[in-house]
Specification:
Length: about 170
């Protein structure tokens, strides 16, 4: 089931460094919000995320958010971090990823230099893979307790990466 397999698997988004991205030819990241940059529906970035975002920007790594959330949720969060975003991304469909990739191409970043980062196999990783974009799986910041999320996480469990990449 290669379509569900991430290109890379890490424990946390903060393990991604500009040097590691440059080593792999990655010049831009498409970022998920909930449980990748913050906890579910939290309007404030998780600890260390603002500094991580700034280190990426300082290194010239382009960043854009793609979220299934509505603009009302994503706008204040993205503005706080100074990032462009695509709301209503329809993940796992490639729509949001393709829209973000088009914005990044307009900034001079070809599709083969983009990777998407997220915590869900069935939305973030599948969607990036369907869009032909490299995917980076990170474990969620926290596990949601609602029944739909518990069901989704249980269904994803057999597909979760068994090994993590050394991302240096």
């Amino acid at each position: 089931m290669a379509i569900f397999k991430p290109t890379y698997a890490l424990r946390s988004i903060t393990e991604i460094t500009p040097a590691a991205l440059k080593k792999r030819g990655i010049k831009a990241l498409i970022l998920d919000v909930d449980n990748t940059l913050t906890t579910h529906n939290n309007p404030v970035p998780a600890e260390g995320i603002p500094q991580w975002i700034e280190s990426m920007k300082s290194a010239g790594i382009k960043l854009i958010i793609v979220s299934n959330n509505k603009a009302e949720r994503v706008t204040p969060f993205a503005e706080m971090l100074g990032l462009h975003f695509v709301p209503n991304g329809a993940k796992p469909l490639p729509k949001g990823f393709k829209q973000a990739a088009a914005e990044l191409r307009a900034e001079g970043v070809p599709k083969n230099r983009i990777a998407a980062v997220g915590d869900q196999i069935f939305t973030d990783i599948l969607g990036a893979n369907l869009a032909g974009i490299r995917s980076i799986f990170v474990y969620p910041i926290e596990f949601e307790t609602s029944l739909p999320f518990r069901f989704k996480r249980a269904a994803e469990k057999p597909l979760l990466p068994k090994r993590f990449n050394k991302f240096d």
